[in-house]
Design brief:
The structure is a single chain. The chain is mainly alpha-helical. It is built from 8 helices and no strands. It folds into 2 domains: about 80 residues; about 60 residues.
Length: about 190
């Protein structure tokens, strides 16, 4: 018998930690519920003394299943994480506001022609393609290009690429509409 530790050699000491069934906290139902309760205000986000950890623990059966031993540390840790996320979100929002205030959007692309997104050419092309589709007509990219004067601001190759992009997007959206939103996702 080992006199210093009060047990026989080879005998394993069993403590309360080993007795309590190990609960998987990460991605658990209890953690998700605690996060929801903290965000909704059911449990105060700041430990202001209005609700003790024991009272919070007894609020839901999911919490009780997780065990009391680490509850206070888990509650404190989750509170800190949420507050840190709030601080980060506020800093990100402030930076975004500062960025948009100090930056005016360019009306020219890096290659010297106007920006396509939101341009009159983009709107007219969408209208022309829809009319062609409804009437069953066909026009070459060159004919579409010469249809409106504002299209001439773009090089023919760039305009042609936007035609193909619009047609491809329309086909894809139609496929999603017919086949459903899960179309194209890999099977698990």
């Amino acid at each position: 018998m080992d006199e210093k530790k009060g047990k026989k050699k080879g005998e394993k000491k069993i403590d309360a930690k080993d007795k309590e069934e190990e609960y998987k906290w990460r991605n658990s139902e209890a953690q998700e519920q605690l996060r929801k309760d903290l965000l909704s205000g059911r449990i105060p986000l700041h430990d202001d003394g209005t609700l003790t950890a024991k009272e919070a623990f007894m609020m839901r059966p999911e919490y009780v299943k997780s065990g009391w031993r680490l509850w206070e540390a888990r509650l404190k840790s989750l509170r800190e994480r949420i507050l840190r996320d709030y601080d980060r979100a506020k800093a990100d929002a402030d930076c975004y506001v500062n960025y948009t205030k100090n930056r005016t959007p360019s009306d020219q692309s890096a290659r010297g022609y106007p920006e396509w997104e939101g341009s009159l050419s983009q709107k007219l092309l969408a209208i022309d393609l829809n009319e062609m589709k409804e009437q069953g007509r066909h026009m070459t990219p060159q004919e579409l290009y010469l249809l409106h004067e504002c299209h001439l601001d773009f090089p023919l190759q760039v305009f042609r690429d936007h035609i193909y992009q619009k047609i491809g997007t329309d086909k894809y959206l139609h496929t999603l509409k017919v086949m459903g939103k899960g179309y194209g996702k890999p099977y698990k």
